[in-house]
Amino acid sequence: MSNSLSGPLHDVAGDAGHEAHPPRMGFFTDTSVCIGCKACEVACKEWNLVPEDGLSLTGMSYDNTGALGASTWRHVAFVEQPIGRASRSTDLGMPGMGPPPDATPPAGPGQETESGEGGVRWLMSSDVCKHCTHAACLDVCPTGSLFRTEFGTVVVQEDICNGCGYCVPACPYGVIDIRPGDGRAFKCTLCYDRIGEGMTPACAQACPTESIQYGELDELRERAGRRLGELQEQGVDGARLYGADPDDGVGGDGAFFLLLDEPEVYGLPPDPVVTTRDLGSMWRHVGAAAGALVGLGVASFLGRRR
Amino acid sequence: MREQRMVPEASPDSYYGRPIIKEPTWKTPDVPLYLFLGGLAGASAVLAEGAAVTDRPDLERVARVAAGAGAALGTVALVHDLHRPERFLNMLRVLKPTSPLSVGSWILAPFSGLSAAAAASSVTGRLPRVGRLAGVGATVLGPPLATYTAALLANTAVPAWHEAHRELPFVFAGSGATAAGGFACLFTPLDQAGPARRMLAAGALVELAAAERLTGRLGLVGEPYGQGRPGRLMRTARVLTAVGGTAALVAGRRSRTVSVLAGAACVAASVLTRFGIFEAGTASARDPKYTVEPQRERLRARAAERARTLGR
Amino acid sequence: MAECHPVGFQWVMEAKRKGATIIHVDPRFTRTSAVADLHVPLRAGTDIAFLGGLVHHVLDNDLDFREYVVHYTNAAALVSEDFRDTEDLDGLFSGYDAEEQQYDPTTWQYENAPQSAAAGMRDPGQPGGPAASEEHEAARSEQAGSGGPTVPAKPDRDETLQHPRCVFQILKRHFARYTPELVAEVCGVSEEDFLRVAKALTENSGRERTSAFCYAVGWTHHSTGVQTIRTASILQTLLGNIGRPGGGILALRGHASIQGSTDIPTLFNILPGYIPMPHAAQHRSLEEFVAEDAGSTGFWGNMDAYTVSLLKAWWGDAATQDNDFRFDYLPRLTGHHGTYDTVVNQIEGRSPGYFVVGENPAVGSANGKMQRLGLANLEWLVVRDLTMVETATFWKDGPEIESGELSTEGIGTEVFFLPAASHVEKKGSFTNTQRMLQWRHQAVQPPGDARSDLQFYYELGQRIRARLAGSTDEMDRPLLDLTWDYPTEGPLGEPDAEAVLREINGWDGSGDALSSYTQLAKDGSTACGCWIYCGVYADETNQAARRKPHWEQSLVAPEWGWAWPANRRILYNRASADPDGKPWSERKKYVWWDAEQGKWTGDDVPDFVADRAPDHVPEEGAQGPDALGGRDPFIMQTDGKAWLYVPTGLADGPLPTFYEPVESPVRNAAHRPQRNPALEDVAEPANPLNPPESRVFPYVFTSYRLTEHHTAGGMSRTLPYLSELQPEMFCEVSPRLARERGLDHGGWATIVTSRSAIEARVMVTARMRSLRLGERWVEHVGLPYHWGANGLVTGDSVNDLVGIALDPNVHIQDKVGTCDIRPGRRPRGPALVDFVDDYRRRSGAHPAEEDDS
Ligand SMILES: Nc1nc2c(c(=O)[nH]1)N[C@H]1C(S)=C(S)[C@@H](COP(=O)(O)OP(=O)(O)OC[C@H]3O[C@@H](n4cnc5c(=O)[nH]c(N)nc54)[C@H](O)[C@@H]3O)O[C@H]1N2
Ligand SMILES: Nc1nc2c(c(=O)[nH]1)N[C@H]1C(S)=C(S)[C@@H](COP(=O)(O)OP(=O)(O)OC[C@H]3O[C@@H](n4cnc5c(=O)[nH]c(N)nc54)[C@H](O)[C@@H]3O)O[C@H]1N2
Ligand code: SF4
Ligand code: SF4
Ligand code: SF4
Ligand code: SF4
Ligand code: SF4
Ligand SMILES: [Mo]
Predict the structure, then answer these.
(1) Which domains does chain A have, with CATH numbers?
(2) Which one of A112, A162, A286, A304 would you mutate to disrupt binding with B, by most B Cβ within 10 Å of its Cβ?
(3) C 738-767 → A contacts, CB under 8 A
(4) Which of B132, B116, B128, B176 is nearest to B150 (CA)?
(5) Residues C103-143 pLDDT 10s
(6) Chain C residues within 8 A of A104 when measuring between CB atoms
(7) Parallel, antiparallel, or unpaired: how do β-strands C249-251 and C213-215 relate?
(8) CATH of domain C680-847
(9) What value of ipTM does the predicted structure carry?
(10) Does domain C339-426+444-476 have CATH number 3.40.50.1110?
(11) What phi, psi does A287 have (nearest 5°)?
(12) Which secondary-structure segment (H or E) carries C308?
């Protein structure tokens, strides 16, 4: 139980008290083959009866979903980049990029490219709850509504959640959220009801290109390693795994990714850490401060009587 | 031309400027008020017990009421903040040390009961024994009640809160003491208010020192504490705290008016501090740079470290 | 392809994983480009120039697969002395009649091949018209069936390919001007990009390797659409990429079973299995009807058997040898009956009633105003649809009501809206792009009054027959004699779709299901609803319902579904073996001649006479399949060869030639004629066309689909999960165009043509490229065409902008046109009409002259 709060943890389900349990299941999302069809988003909503999440045009390329949330458990990001500015660059200087209000196209030449020169790259990536090895959402949930399943995944029990909202800012990936009007927290369940029946999660089932691969986490990690090798061999710029490393700040993700650029470009934190990694220090400081308050109280009564 | 339009390398990348983490869904004023009330109540319990021990019945009564009412109102604020208030009791289904809210609920619930009993007894004079016992219990729970809320905020991915997890408890302890002392000053006759003034002043000192250290240590992530609305709130609180604390120390002993004003300033300061801290946190959650930059920095440092060890 | 055929695209991604190079040629950078190895943006409507450039590159550098070309194509055939190419006649072929805007194809024939009206050209006075929005490859050329038109005799050949009048040399001369420089000038594609494509394609074609082309409406929706596909065919044939695994020209079809509804047609001009629809004046008897084909080479030689079996399926015992199998009961063509012809007829008051079933022309068909003017001039209109589509509500919320051009009170059309059951609420088959039928089971009962189309038509037939019962009028006989007796099932009394499939498959004299179309007889002993589907119910089993996973069978997976004809997965697969019947290479082994057993064998069902040896030479005068030699893989062609040159059957020339789209901002740099000389104009006041090179309409627009929506939107704008993904009509423009016109990302723009103006939110994106053609820039305005007035998300319809001028072969409209774009929303009410009028006046746009067409 030494690594219950952070660090590599091989047997997450066991750590959570599941005695004999199936292997840890998860997702490997290979964004290099994602075609942005959003079938995953729709399949997820269909299967899980997730409500519509707003009918507004964002101006963010073809992404009108915006982000993961209580009513969006899969979210496909669309990143437009001028070629050659792939990595680490920031504002892409492209008017097509920003949200509408301040997104007037900047004046001045430089955009027009003759056919053949320059060009653009369009990255697509389907994001989902990471089912962290060390899941902050679960750790902080005061009701036990969030729990660790026998598959090592993290699921909300809707009938217990009281909408305290603690899980929301706790998640280092900004995944889980409270659904307005309903008040409970929602997120991807990794299709707990399906995988329990030996079925594939709806999103992975719908993905036409096998960008979303579902399976035993250990096997997925191996597969991802091979795929990364392949891409690197082909000289694909910027390919990297994200969330695959059990030594990372959340002990590795149950749903990890192959990305083609820095994580933040896709709206992912570059080095997330489960907040409870610092829990010991927090409680120590809280204790010390409480002690200080006692001391302060005592001191206030020392000395003169008035 | 395009080069020039590029934001320089150092600024954070992000996905259309969208936040990376979710902004807390906690509502204002519920949650910052709760933070304040918890601090007030927790520190007041300590003050009350001191008063009881040192036989300052007026001070004791005021502080007991502050503790009891603070806890009661705090509970109301907390329940009101729940999106499913009817399920408040689900908080007590489990006790999870990893969840400050859970721990806090287990502190708040008994504290509320105890402090209410103590206050009731103190005000009515009935069941003094029981009241006293309850008071002792509340005193034990008071300081953690005042400080656990720091962990409540810090145990999130919100950069300005999480990164401040070492200082926040002290800020909260200090702020709680300032509030408790200040509140007592308002309603306690001068002759019994000495400890309240001293608590106020000491709390102010602790709070100011801890806050100073916080912003100093946090660097970029501390920025929201000094900017915009949270910055204004924090600055006003600081001034009020400093003025209130100094006034209480210097003239509070002599003038009831000064004492009351100083007390009021400190209560107000404590309220403002909690709002400031709360809003600084949400601001830091909203702007992706506070999430990305420090993480980037961390990665860079790690890479450099790796390169160094390899280089050797 | 990723946008519109994402499920099919998985195989492209799989190929990519295995090392395939993906090249995407599209004016826009799309989801497909995003995962392609190379995206080549080109000016919309210039694909013939681009592909022509590739043909030129292959011919000029001797990169063709010579052995394949000599033996399997008509490269060696000699063409008549009278033929004149565009090179000789300044951009026109011989036989052009400027007055009629039509070609007489007489001079295009092979040498010494006696002139005969080809099946596709049987009635020059009947250019026909398709159910246009649906059919991209239909109509006149379709009239010849799936095999191309008839050439009565095998042509003289020069196998050295040196004869100046052999097809190969004609081809070389014809494409000589399509140099990389011309490609750059016309398409805006840099020479480097062009050469990269040329290199990738040619290096990946030949004995060891094959390349495939995938296309859909980016190529077909043009007034030169057919010739674009022809150019691709020439290229693929020269490279030996047809009939071989990994090769082909794959038409990515549209709606889920649009292939099925071409096979068993919704088109006016063909009968099931591409048997041409008889013409009233010409085909008075069955004998007359089949005469031209009966005598010819190849499998169309058996058209009599297919037709008789069809008549038997429809009229059963009433169809006998004595009464010509009731050939006289078949409907006849008397002229144009395509969708746009119908609309003109409606507007001009000649067409009082209209069934609209599973279509939303008020949004989906070109020139929305004309569509609605037609609808408004009907007596009755029946709309069968899943949702309340704009075609059913045009009378209250059409744009013309808003603008005051029509008023609800003034519209006399009686509209019947009948809710239809969707694909999950009924069973049946889908035929996909690969000609594969896959059976669908019913998942749920239709809600409320919704009924399947099958049930609707079945019951409609029954009611009409009940009304006519006892009639002695000869006119009613065809209806009363129909075999109209399907078993019904389920709570709603649905006709059993499997019984329909079995009838389509056909049966023999004893009523047993047939297993192959080769069993069909012309003596009336067999019945078959669609000869190419014969075998889908072989062994009394629904073969389309087979779902054996691919890992339990061979690479070709013949036991998944059933593909016509004869469950063949690759057509003309005899070409996957060399002339001697040996695979071209071990890598590309597919079907070959097994000399020991004396038959063709391999992974797929051989598409050839099973025991015809590679060295077989047919007897002089042999007919039908017997006339095929052992080296004639293209068995549906009358000469057994792939046609590089089309001696007959096309309305606009035997070879593809680049002409500008009807509306274009630039002058044709390749040839003197600006637009397709054989173009079919639609002369209507509501159909003015923007003049070429108009300064008033300086930009190119092209329309397309988004993955998130479906066509005219009835099936997607009504669903929250899809609507939220693309909630608003938008247009895509390049940053340069945005600057030029002051368009703000996220703001509004108004797009104008001489038909109408619409508004859209602006997406400024570097995915839209500014193309340089010599001295000038060309900008595209990209328009997804899914929006209309109804549904959860609404918006202006792109088709209100689109004019109608048709490809003369299949009568499809141009997907591209010219427009202006300006910031801000469009005028409302009558002001819109004035706004567009002003543009029209300034540009000099006017409808085509009546006597043009
Ligand atoms: N999601 C979705 N899928 C669909 C449909 C749908 O509505 N939504 N519709 C179905 C139907 S009915 C059909 S017919 C198919 C159509 O499938 P596609 O033909 O793939 O559909 P489009 O998006 O209309 O056009 C394809 C591309 O052609 C490009 N284009 C436009 N003009 C030109 C040109 O002149 N030359 C070239 N080379 N490209 C050009 C457009 O930019 C666009 O990217 O899709 C089917 N699949
Ligand atoms: N500008 C522009 N215009 C175009 C195109 C383009 O690229 N650009 N593309 C063209 C092409 S390729 C096409 S195919 C057309 C499509 O244009 P349409 O065919 O007019 O449009 P759809 O929206 O596909 O209409 C099909 C309707 O059938 C209904 N439906 C679905 N299933 C059933 C059923 O089982 N029974 C019945 N009765 N109804 C059913 C749906 O609800 C839907 O409303 O648009 C054409 N128009
Ligand atoms: S990604 Fe966030 S919501 Fe998902 S398991 Fe991790 S902490 Fe919880
Ligand atoms: S909102 Fe629900 S799931 Fe989230 S922490 Fe609170 S009780 Fe747990
Ligand atoms: S696993 Fe299930 S719940 Fe999670 S995103 Fe996929 S479909 Fe939705
Ligand atoms: S379904 Fe697959 S390919 Fe489509 S957007 Fe989702 S991950 Fe990408
Ligand atoms: S909607 Fe249907 S037909 Fe279209 S890609 Fe998806 S599965 Fe295929
Ligand atoms: Mo289509």
Answers:
(1) 12-93+107-276 (3.30.70.20)
(2) A286
(3) 738-739, 743-747, 761, 763-767
(4) B176
(5) 999 999 998 765 444 333 344 333 333 333 333 333 333 34
(6) 744-745
(7) parallel
(8) 2.40.40.20
(9) 0.92
(10) no
(11) -60, -45
(12) helix C303-315
